[in-house]
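Table S2 (text version). Query chain:
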Amino acid sequence: MNIPPHPNIVQLLGVSTDCPRPLVVLEYCNEGSLDKLLFDMDEKLSTQKQLTIANAIAKGLNHLHENNIVHRDLAARNILIHNGEAKISDFGLSRALKEESQVGKTTSTIGPIRWMAPESVSNQIYSTKSDVWMFGIILYEITARQEPHIGEDILNVAIKIRDSGLTPTITNDCPLALREIMEMCWQMEPKIRPVSVRNCITWMQ
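Corresponding structure-token output:
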């Protein structure tokens, strides 16, 4: 899977097969993962900072979708920060599609349930629209500063996502722009969600 370079995508620099196990060399990101910033640090994040991080992730995801790549594992833990710039990483579950509007299906029942879209939980279907749902969950992580459905029984969460499109409760202090985007991303019907995240980028600019 070839991903063209983009400022908001962690770049693959090389691969070595000379060692007992293959080594992958990735772009270095000096501030670590987004989940560490959100969940482990007491640094206050202004609305502008939240919007800046969200916008960077949206641009990176838009780039993937323009190249017909579905990430399938979008979460704060898979976003790295370098000099204040958010970059999407960890493409272990990613899949290439023939075209952006295509829908794929996997036989695997393993996945990040609490971040997944209803159609992914129920039928193992993935597309740019399931990534858009996950983008909404990342916005929740940024604003609530916690993972979705934390402390809840994972089986019950899966059933509720599958049957009724369960989403985490948006916090009262969530910036209005991000609240509206989350609600757009969390439509039960994939066709109603934004086309990739182009619309989301427009909203945030």
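Notes on Table S2: The domain at 12-204 is CATH 1.10.510.10 (Transferase(Phosphotransferase); domain 1). Residues 29 and 77 are 13 Å apart (CA to CA).
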